[in-house]
Amino acid sequence: MNEIKIGALCWNQYTEWAALLEAGIRADRLGYDTLWTWDHLYPIVGDPHGRNYEGWLTITAWAARTEHARIGLMVGANPYREPSLVAKMATTLDHISNGRAILGIGAAWFEGEAHDFGFEFGSGAPERLRWLRQALPIMRGMLDGTDPSAPDGSRYRASGVRNDPLPIQRHLPICVGGGGEKVTLKLVAQYADMNNIGGGIEAVRRKEAILLEHCAAVGRDPAEIERTTGIGVLVIRDDRAEAERRFRAAFDRNRVARPWENQPVGTPEDVAEKLAPYVALGYRHLIAGFPADYDEESMTRFVTEVKPLLEKMA
Predict the structure, then answer these.
(1) What is the pTM of this model?
(2) What is the three-class DSSP state of 271?
(3) Sheet of strand 174-177, all strands in order from the earlier edge strand to the far edge
(4) Pick the CATH number of 5-231 from 1.10.10.10, 3.90.930.12, 2.10.260.10, 3.20.20.30
(5) Which is deepest, 5, 82, 114, 211, by most CB within 10 Å?
(6) Closest to 105 measured CA to CA, from 134, 132, 85, 138
(7) Alpha-carbon gap, residue 160 to 145, rounded angstroms
(8) Domain limits of the chain?
């Protein structure tokens, strides 16, 4: 039997703090392997004019109240913070969590949010990807204790930056999120310990093939990269109509005019059947989205019923 890992991505929007905190504690108690939230300051699903909690502080609070799940952002917005500071924050999170931190990072995309908060967002995606390429060696160097410096011409100015104490983990993993075929997946091949892509099985299948090409080009063993994918919003019930009703109610609470399509909603067998192609492709770390009210039945049954079904298929 091959191991299946499951993650809980608890939305930090349109919720109350007590409920968001409890969702992370519950996921850990249920046996989720990983625990995530977004690095966004406005809601990104539905109406952006709503309640939203900051990501780094959310995962730090979870780290102090959980014991088992690995914890990270899915994924951090590189332009919002200096990479040297991000590495220091991830190191501190690793100590708070007793060695369970993951540094999730990506180029970022929410221009309206960045504009309102006053973050430099560059001229477009190519420039932000260039910044990410410059940031990753600084982060990796600090996590490994090599006192990195930014090269001449870089956006960053880190100079022999020390990281004391080092993380508890000897190799704190970096998860690079995004499926850009020319640049992002090449950065995954060069620097990432984990990737995260989504968009449905056909998109994941295509990008997996391209990732393998990038790994071959840079001489990286693709087995060194843990494959993760977001599976969408998960709702499990014995009655399919009730599962669909719960699903739509969750999107109504988030002020979404049109709920997402083709989501893992239905009976445990329905969900396992939908996820089986990811497992067959080698994406065996499946991250489910849980909007408020963080449906306890679905969170529980993903662990107790769907995961065993997937492990039998693996």
Answers:
(1) 0.95
(2) helix
(3) 70-73, 34-37, 5-10, 285-290, 226-233, 194-197, 174-177, 103-106, 76-77
(4) 3.20.20.30
(5) 211
(6) 132
(7) 10
(8) 5-231
